[in-house]
Amino acid sequence: MAIEGELVVRLDWDKGHVKRAEARSQRPRVGRTLLPGRSPDDAVTLVSTLFAICGRSQGVAAAAALDAARSREPSALLAAARERRLAAETLHEHFWRVLIDWPRLATREPATAAMGAVRKALAPWLDAHEDDTGVPLADVGRIAKHSVFGREAAAWLAIAAPDELEAWWRAGETPVARVVADLMAAGPELGRSDVPLLAPLDEAALAGIFEPALSAEDDFEAAPHIRGETRETGALARVRSHRLVAAAASQWGHGLGARAVARLVELAQLVQGVAQGAQGERRHGASCVADGTGISWVETARGLLIHRAQVEGGRIAGYRIVAPTEWNFHPKGAFVRGALGLSPSAPEALRQQASWIVSSLDPCVAWRVEVGNA
What we know:
By secondary structure, this protein is α+β, with helices and mostly antiparallel strands.
């Protein structure tokens, strides 16, 4: 069973300019409605099956938060298995964007065969267990070379500047390179916003920032913020310091081009890691913030995910989930701020531009674009 939701973005325009932008998430609050009263083990199982998108990340977040609430420390082997699942799921989602979603937006044929090969190659890590050894996934590197980069991931990561990257996409040696050419033709500055990027947060910072906010604000998960200011989360926030990403953001701003480059950079980094059997940067953690209360964080493909669990008498007494979509599609967030700068020639052009921007911010629910008159 999966819980479906929908993101609706509404753009009102007049005389070639967007006058108003709105993003409305219609996803059910699963944590509040379905988990209280259940045992922690049942809740982890349920959460892992409820979410059709990033289900493994949701499951890890639930397990970690409930471990912390009960003051349980997972073994090093279990923590490593969770990290492998997260790395593999992030890779899977990045591959899906570049092989399936980007071609569809560009009205090209999606690379379904390559995506099927990716899923098969990632299977040992997607379903990693505590007693697994974390074997290298060499096939992932070969698929990425053939379908995405046209060279080894390490060689692609050596690209240092946007003009070198342009030479790569103009050469069009892979299906993804050709789609990136279409994406860049739409405009690398498209949807740029001045929303700050979410900085990396450790358990102490999460407990100090998010626990007070979740305790005080009943609607925090619908419009998350850090001390009143929204943030952009996702690959761009995580790999901002990579020289190619930093150069792209400096030249184009935090918009379509920089987000696409960040996704490709993180994909290449993860490909390198799994091909060598390495998990890369830590992608999750948790803290016990009060007796019976645990808070966890997971860096999903789409950005920061937070779970907060309260356990009393062996049962869940309260549960909150803050998802990446609510950061990026906040009423004052990256999508809204970026869309207000659009100046299309016609409604269909606006719809296409908005679709590229939504895709670059990668919501974790189905989405649609509405265009109206201001």
